């Protein structure tokens, strides 16, 4: 595991800088410094353009290492064209295999001599890769949206936004629990400041609510980490980093100390993780920060919040909590499934009752995150695939909807659905965009979310009690509860049609109102900036394979590993 | 060895003093130099010449630091030869780490005193000698291996502080604070002496080494229990453990801000080391007598301190309660029998000192003219009008709250892991919950600086920094907090190295 032990400092530094993963994390952070050094006196158009351009460049730069990691052809092209700034041997990404087989970049962070031994190590597998691609897409578009919609103090806005980007990439790449926690907390303060300072009228209490909820929840992440550290310290394995995720994603009881723990301790650890990550998703009883924060945040930050930050919670569940504690997940899964279905139906019903269009979108996020939760709770390959694809799909849809709602709010000065109407003929390009995004949110076949919701429902019907069956998906479910959940989730699609149609009818159809009479349509450049979202919504709806192929190995690998861990827990567990 | 043997120690030569206690002696030399300078050169007492004394004094601090580093790994004792009696002064590597921390605090306080003192006319002759005498007392306390020396050192560090607290003569609360601090401090000293007397009655000696080696012979356990309780109360007063914390908010608010920063960091560091060397090291065999009281003090401190901090509107009072709470977190390390935990107490104190001194640095130059206090209203909108101060303060608050990318996070993590390891799970859970709640009031400061529109605008709002010496302290605190928050490895290795060989 200690890849760079014994290397000279210079070589370590070289490997650190050349690693594409580090570049993806640190390029935005460097961008933050560059933006910070730029002049900002009056905040006139010239300064705004300059700051915006630099921020956009540093948001786009991570695309180069990302593209090289996804496509070997681009990587070899970059290598041949003399750009040796990225060492793709350190990328460690392959769609088929999990984290286990890949070369990784590891540095010692806290030395072995101390009471614990912590690494700085990054890794990437299909799950991370999907979310990193999604984040890069959303960050790029949110930067464009910011240039369009944010008027106040653009320099500090982009500084905070660029830190946030680096931290989010860090969360998706971190392979050490402490490092994960550090990046996790690093997301918080920039996001909090972005919501409260650039948000709407009620942004202060909403931001505070967001902050307190998430800080409180994330402290719970520390508890299993500390237990883990101590158990590794006491356990048989004396070498290797104590908080490395791969140490725990391991069915060998000599290596993975949590297998030998008492059942009650494992349950407590699992619940702590579930709470820490669940608040970010947000799972049902802890969701109340989410509609407020989404509504009051500035539109580009609502895009980032819904499209990316909510995914960090689901990512944490799939990366750490679920694979580490398969036996506990087995027990909790039915409850989690119920919570998921409650989110789908409750989210849709509450969305239907809202008059504020941004709140409608916010609650629609809750409903769609319910599908992700249900997919995870189904505990089989198809359900996992659906959940991960749904993460990507929801990211695209939420980004589209929040962007459009932000544009509507800026141009009409209101978010009240009763004061809007008739935009269909007035602003055809805006209307087209909203219709596509809205129908995608319903889960219409041929649009992107269908390939998330459909497998989730199939996976729920196909619930199996045996780990081996969960991978192969042989036969149909024998559990009544899951059949019921599947039926209800499918019904949830109908409910979602209700609120989406209400949104579309209220905003696009009807008579022109006082507010909408003078509204300008999206200009062609604005429409061009938005077009990638429409293309992805339709394109990945018709041909979802590229996204599925990115994480093709993850569900199988994870479920196989979970089966092995569960078996060993049954054999050796205390 | 009996008590008489200690009393018949032969005269110790000056050379031996120097070998054993060089850092303290250098500080005394600094005091003499300061007095001579301030009494002979009127120039240094003018506005223009106010930088001379702090600059020369800081050279002395560096010298003392070099002398302390020279003692690393050599375990000097006084008397030098063991045959001539048990050591009265001694230094192991942990002592030296604490001495270096005290000197770092002194250096930063000296550098940041300059501008502030000019503004509130504190550059009269007494300020710097008093400051250095107080640190001399702290360093002596760190070296002390005898209860008499311990007591004298505590008085030595307190007496100059009583005066320093009251130095801001234009500010009514300053005098009030000095009186309060003095009266309660004298009371606490009474407890301490009484406790020391009872400990003598128990062990028949005042020397740490003999206490550790000997058995409890003279009187029963009740005697020891009473002695421990009284000594603990004396200490609890100084490090502000609940319920002996009531003086803290008033005194911290009334003192000149730089002095408050010094009190909050220096006194806490020195007294915590005294607790480590008296209780954790010397009385390790009698853990059952003091561990639970210390833990109870700590638990109470965390809860009450946090609850009191939440409604504060004065920044200085808020930081005062925060310092109370941090004393509570530090007791978590004290109850762990493993000596690496004591090293982590040091690590935590470094993180704490950097963040607190940095905050008080900002407080000291935000103080509106003729007012000794900064309220949360005063710092509204600071991040926009003075981004340097705003962002720096944010980082200090993050560090105090123990969130990542700051030294405070690792300080807490190390302490808590050690404590869970030693079986103090309930204590750590309490501390974790407390630190969650504490995020609220640190956040309040950040919110005020970033979100609100400013009400009043003082001159300091626009000036990035009033002097180069200020900038230096800024840099030290900020860079330290951030660098060691990202790469704590080297510091941890230093702590580890301190324990390679530890004689007793």
Care to describe what's here?
The complex is a heterodimer of chains A (574) and B (504). Chain A has 574 residues and is mainly α. Chain A has two domains: 320 residues, no CATH class; 218 residues, no CATH class. Helix content of chain A is 71%, strand content 2%. The two termini of chain A are 28 Å apart. By secondary structure, chain B is mainly α. Chain B has one domain. Chain B is built from 21 helices and two strands. Chain B has a two-stranded antiparallel sheet with strand order 1-2. In chain B, helix 4 runs antiparallel to helix 5. Chain B is globular. The mean pLDDT of chain B is 86. The interface between A and B is medium-sized, with 33 and 33 residues.
Number of domains of chain B: 1
User: Please, what is the average pLDDT of chain B?
Assistant: 86
* Estimated share of beta-strand residues of chain B: under 5%
Task: Give the structural class of chain B.
Answer: mainly alpha
Largest sheet of chain B: 2 strands, antiparallel
User: Low-confidence stretches of chain B at least 5 residues in length (pLDDT < 50)?
Assistant: none
């Amino acid at each position: 595991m200690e890849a760079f032990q014994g290397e000279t400092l210079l070589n370590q530094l070289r490997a650190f800088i050349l690693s594409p993963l580090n570049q993806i994390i640190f390029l935005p952070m460097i961008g933050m410094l560059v933006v910070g050094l730029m002049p900002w006196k009056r905040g006139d158009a010239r300064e705004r353009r300059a700051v915006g351009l630099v921020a956009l460049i540093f948001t786009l730069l991570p695309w180069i290492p990302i593209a090289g990691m996804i496509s070997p052809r681009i990587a070899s092209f970059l290598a041949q064209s003399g750009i040796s700034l990225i060492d793709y041997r350190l990328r460690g990404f392959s769609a088929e295999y999990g984290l286990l087989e890949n070369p990784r970049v590891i540095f010692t962070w806290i030395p072995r001599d101390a009471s614990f031994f912590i690494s700085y190590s990054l890794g990437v597998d299909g799950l991370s890769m999907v979310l990193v691609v999604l984040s890069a897409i959303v960050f790029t578009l949110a930067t464009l949206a910011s240039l369009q919609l944010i008027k106040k103090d653009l320099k500090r806005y982009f500084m905070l936004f660029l830190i946030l980007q680096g931290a989010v990439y860090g969360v998706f790449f971190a392979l050490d629990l402490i490092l994960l926690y550090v990046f996790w907390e690093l997301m918080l303060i920039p996001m909090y400041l972005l919501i409260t300072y650039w948000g709407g009228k009620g942004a202060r209490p909403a931001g505070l609510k967001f902050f307190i909820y998430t800080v409180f929840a994330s402290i719970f992440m520390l508890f299993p980490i500390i237990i883990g550290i101590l158990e590794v310290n006491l356990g048989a394995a004396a070498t290797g980093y104590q908080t490395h995720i791969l140490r725990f994603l391991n069915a060998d009881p000599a290596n993975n100390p949590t297998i030998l723990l008492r059942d009650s301790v494992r349950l407590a650890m699992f619940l702590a993780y579930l709470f820490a990550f669940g608040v970010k998703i947000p799972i049902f009883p802890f969701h109340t920060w989410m509609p407020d924060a989404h509504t009051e945040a500035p539109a580009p930050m609502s895009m980032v919040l819904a499209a990316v930050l909510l995914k960090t919670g689901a990512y944490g569940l799939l990366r750490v909590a679920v694979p580490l504690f398969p036996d506990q997940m087995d027990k909790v899964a039915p409850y989690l499934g119920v919570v998921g279905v409650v989110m789908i139906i409750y989210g849709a019903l509450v969305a239907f009752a809202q008059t504020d269009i941004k709140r409608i979108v916010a609650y629609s996020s809750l409903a769609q995150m319910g599908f992700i939760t249900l997919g995870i709770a189904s505990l089989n390959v198809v359900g996992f695939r659906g959940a991960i694809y749904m993460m990507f799909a929801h990211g695209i849809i939420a980004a589209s909807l929040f962007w459009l709602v932000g544009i509507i709010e800026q141009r009409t000065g209101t978010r009240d659905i009763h004061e809007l109407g008739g935009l269909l003929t007035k602003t055809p390009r805006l209307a087209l965009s909203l219709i596509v995004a809205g129908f995608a949110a319903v889960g219409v076949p041929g649009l992107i979310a269908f390939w998330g919701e459909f497998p989730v429902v199939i996976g729920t019907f196909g619930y199996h009690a045996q780990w081996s069956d969960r991978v192969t998906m042989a036969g149909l479910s024998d559990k009544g509860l899951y059949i019921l959940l599947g039926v209800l989730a499918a019904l949830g699609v109908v409910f979602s049609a209700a609120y989406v149609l209400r949104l579309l009818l209220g905003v696009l159809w009807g008579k022109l109102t006082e507010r909408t009479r003078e509204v300008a349509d999206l200009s062609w450049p604005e429409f061009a900036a938005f077009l990638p979202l429409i293309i992805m919504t339709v394109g990945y709806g018709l041909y979802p394979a590229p996204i599925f192929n990115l994480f093709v190995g993850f569900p199988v690998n994870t479920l196989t590993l979970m089966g092995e861990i569960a078996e060993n827990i049954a054999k050796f567990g205390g | 060895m009996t008590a008489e043997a200690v009393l018949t120690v032969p005269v110790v030569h000056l050379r031996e003093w120097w070998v054993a206690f060089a850092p303290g002696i250098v500080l005394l030399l600094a005091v003499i130099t300061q007095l001579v300078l301030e009494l002979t050169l009127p120039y240094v007492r003018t506005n223009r010449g106010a930088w001379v004394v702090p600059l020369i004094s800081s050279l002395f601090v560096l010298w003392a630091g070099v002398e302390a580093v020279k003692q690393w790994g050599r375990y000097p004792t006084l008397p030098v030869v063991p045959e001539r009696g048990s050591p009265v002064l001694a230094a192991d590597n942990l002592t030296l780490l604490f001495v270096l921390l005290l000197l770092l605090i002194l250096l930063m306080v000296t550098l940041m005193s300059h501008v502030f003192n000019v503004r509130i006319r504190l550059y009269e002759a007494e300020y710097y000698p008093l400051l250095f005498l107080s640190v001399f007392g702290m360093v002596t306390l760190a070296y002390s291996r005898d209860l008499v020396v311990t007591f004298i050192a505590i008085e030595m560090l307190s007496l100059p502080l009583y005066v320093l607290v009251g130095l801001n003569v234009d500010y009514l609360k300053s005098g009030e604070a000095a009186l309060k601090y003095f009266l309660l401090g004298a009371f606490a000293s009474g407890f301490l002496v009484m406790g020391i007397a009872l400990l003598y009655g128990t062990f028949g000696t005042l020397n740490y080494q003999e206490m550790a080696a000997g058995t409890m012979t003279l009187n029963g356990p009740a005697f020891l229990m009473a002695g421990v309780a009284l000594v603990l109360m004396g200490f609890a007063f100084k490090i502000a453990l609940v319920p002996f914390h009531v003086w803290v908010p008033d005194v911290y608010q009334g003192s000149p801000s730089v002095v408050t920063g010094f009190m909050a960091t220096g006194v806490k560091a020195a007294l915590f080391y005294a607790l480590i060397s008296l209780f954790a090291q010397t009385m390790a065999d009698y853990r059952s007598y003091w561990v639970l009281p210390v833990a109870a003090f700590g638990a109470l401190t965390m809860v009450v301190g946090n609850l009191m901090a939440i409604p504060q509107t004065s920044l200085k009072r808020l930081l005062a309660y925060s310092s109370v709470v941090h004393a509570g977190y530090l007791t978590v390390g004290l109850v762990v029998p493993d000596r690496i935990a004591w090293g982590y107490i040091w690590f935590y104190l470094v993180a704490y000192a950097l963040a607190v001194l940095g905050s008080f640095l900002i407080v000291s130059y935000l103080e509106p003219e003729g007012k000794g206090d900064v309220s949360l209203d005063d710092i509204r909108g600071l991040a926009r009008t003075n981004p340097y101060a705003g962002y720096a303060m944010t980082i200090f608050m993050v560090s105090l709250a123990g969130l990542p990318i700051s030294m405070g996070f690792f300080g807490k993590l190390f302490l808590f892991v050690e404590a869970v390891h030693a079986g103090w799970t309930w204590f750590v859970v309490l501390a974790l919950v407390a630190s969650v709640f504490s995020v609220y009031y640190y956040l309040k400061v950040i919110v005020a600086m970033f979100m609100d529109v400013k009400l009043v605008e003082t001159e300091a709002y626009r000036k990035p920094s009033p002097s180069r010496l200020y900038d230096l302290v800024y840099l030290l605190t900020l860079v330290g907090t951030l660098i060691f928050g990202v790469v704590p490895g080297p510091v941890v290795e230093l702590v580890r190295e301190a324990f390679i060989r530890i004689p007793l």
